[in-house]
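RECORD TYPE: inverse folding
INPUT: structure tokens
STRUCTURE:
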């Protein structure tokens, strides 16, 4: 058989449910959907892997086509069989193709073949989905030619596309040579012809993703810590008791040792801890805070020390603990008096060795951190009762800072109240927000058992309820304003809105202005509560 005598159209068969060539089944594809598939492939596995996959798809096709041609006809020689390739390319709709050069040295087996193509279906697919390309894109065609020629000659022949219409050239040109003739030049394109070690690749990608996740996690934790640091500093104090505390905190900051901060709930222990961190040599590194009473034992341990993948059900990957996240910085352990004895032992070991061992991990790692802890409980009493370890207490209380309750620093009540009012003016967007003169007396004569936090909550509660921006005593929580509840004795019929307003107000008073708790009692979301308050 000679290529000249070939009429490929005779090899095509059509019957219902079957389209074939040389007796093999073909599948007719829609070009646009192939283009979309191509884009998906590039986006999901990257351009190099997409090129490799499509090149290999072409390679298998070329081999199959050449095998079919060999089976059907007896060819005069290999060159004639090679010459049939443009016809196959045309009939399958891949492109218009023409051989422009063909030298085969039968003795040495060396081949040089050049093929010129136009209207490549791959160029069209690529162009529709991705536009103009900077480099040749007829990957499947290069694979096809390589597969065909290799099968034809019984050795490795590689085709490379050296110019492409997809990259704005006048035509697509493919050059095919045997591996020896290509020499070193082949190295760059060889990987596109070989199957990748997918399993190893998946493993290395998974590892890479895990590393990135860890980096992001650390970055987020540090970012949150840095953001919080700037929030609340700059509160002045007029009271002797509190300025002594601040002076001492300044001194404490310079010594890189553990600090225990004690004081009633709401006295601002975390604020002081942040202040100490911000004035220490560790200020450029994270300040990580955790409330030890907020989590059950096992979760707290996991949160503090991290875990290894597989340490327990659901531990899918290694996770960094807060000690590690606080590396070079400060870790603030709030409500330290509430941790269990077993966790106290682990914490003591960490403080002694400065080494962390994530849950499920066999090796420890050295971490550099400073511990500041806080509690509103009497730790000495807990030691006496046997619920807190004495050796841990000594470790934690190298330096001790006792915060005075707000009632012992009365001079600070008004500056603090004005500071918070300023915050709510911005947060709630009420520019006219201010105190009525009689409110000032009420605020300063109250004992504030819930300390600074109670003051903050009460003012937020009042700011939300006030109608014209003026905070009058009657909208402060009842405990603070000291007024008697006389609303129920009114005989004036109330509207539904008024009843709702009064009910919400009474619940807010019950929770000392804590909106989260109030929303819980009212069984509505916090944002709904907010909206209702604004509407009313
Ligand atoms: Zn091309």
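DESIGNED SEQUENCE:
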């Amino acid at each position: 058989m000679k290529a000249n005598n070939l009429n490929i159209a005779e090899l095509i068969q059509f019957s219902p449910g079957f389209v074939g060539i040389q007796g093999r089944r073909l599948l007719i594809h829609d070009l646009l959907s192939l283009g979309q598939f191509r884009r998906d492939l590039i986006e999901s596995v990257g351009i190099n892997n997409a090129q490799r996959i499509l090149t290999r798809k072409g390679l298998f096709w070329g081999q199959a086509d050449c095998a079919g041609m060999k089976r059907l006809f007896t060819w005069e020689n290999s060159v004639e069989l090679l010459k049939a390739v443009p016809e196959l390319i045309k009939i399958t709709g891949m492109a218009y193709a023409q051989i422009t050069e063909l030298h085969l040295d039968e003795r040495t087996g060396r081949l040089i073949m050049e093929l010129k193509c136009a209207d490549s279906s791959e160029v069209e697919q690529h162009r529709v989905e991705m536009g103009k390309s900077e480099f040749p894109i007829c990957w499947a065609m290069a694979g096809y030619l390589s597969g065909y020629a290799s099968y034809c000659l019984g050795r490795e022949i590689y085709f490379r596309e050296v110019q492409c219409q997809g990259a704005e050239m006048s035509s697509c040109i493919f050059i095919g040579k045997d591996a020896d003739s290509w020499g070193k030049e082949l190295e760059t394109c060889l990987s596109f012809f070989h199957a990748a070690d997918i399993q190893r690749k998946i493993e290395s990608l998974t590892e890479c993703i895990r590393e990135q996740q860890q980096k992001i996690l650390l970055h987020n934790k540090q970012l949150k810590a840095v953001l919080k640091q700037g929030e609340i500093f700059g509160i002045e104090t007029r009271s002797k008791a509190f300025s002594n505390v601040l002076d001492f905190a300044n001194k404490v900051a310079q010594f890189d040792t553990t600090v225990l901060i004690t004081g009633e709930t709401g006295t601002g222990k975390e604020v002081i801890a942040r202040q100490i961190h911000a004035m220490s040599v560790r200020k450029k590194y994270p300040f990580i805070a955790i409330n030890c009473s907020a989590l059950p034992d096992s979760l707290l341990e996991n949160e503090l020390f991290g875990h290894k993948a597989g340490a327990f059900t659901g531990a899918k990957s290694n996770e960094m603990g807060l000690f590690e996240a606080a590396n070079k910085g400060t870790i603030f352990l709030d409500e330290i008096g509430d941790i269990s004895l077993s966790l106290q032992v682990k914490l003591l070991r960490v403080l002694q060795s400065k080494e962390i061992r994530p849950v499920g991990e066999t090796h420890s790692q050295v971490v550099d951190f400073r511990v500041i802890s806080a509690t509103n409980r009497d730790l000495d009493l807990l030691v006496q009762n046997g619920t807190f370890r004495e050796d841990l207490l000594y470790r934690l209380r190298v330096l001790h800072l006792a915060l005075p309750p707000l009632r012992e620093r009365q001079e600070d009540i008004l500056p603090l109240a004005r500071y918070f009012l300023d915050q709510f003016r911005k947060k709630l967007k009420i520019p006219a927000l201010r105190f009525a003169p009689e409110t000032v007396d009420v605020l300063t004569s109250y004992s504030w058992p819930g300390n600074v936090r109670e003051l903050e909550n009460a003012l937020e509660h009042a700011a939300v309820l006030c109608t014209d921006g003026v905070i009058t005593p009657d909208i402060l929580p009842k405990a603070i304003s000291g007024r008697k509840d006389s609303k129920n004795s009114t005989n004036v019929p109330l509207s539904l809105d008024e009843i709702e307003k009064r009910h919400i107000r009474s619940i807010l008073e019950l929770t000392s202005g804590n909106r989260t708790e109030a929303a819980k009692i009212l069984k509505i979301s916090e944002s709904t509560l907010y909206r209702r308050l604004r509407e009313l």
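NOTES: The chain has a mean pLDDT of 86.
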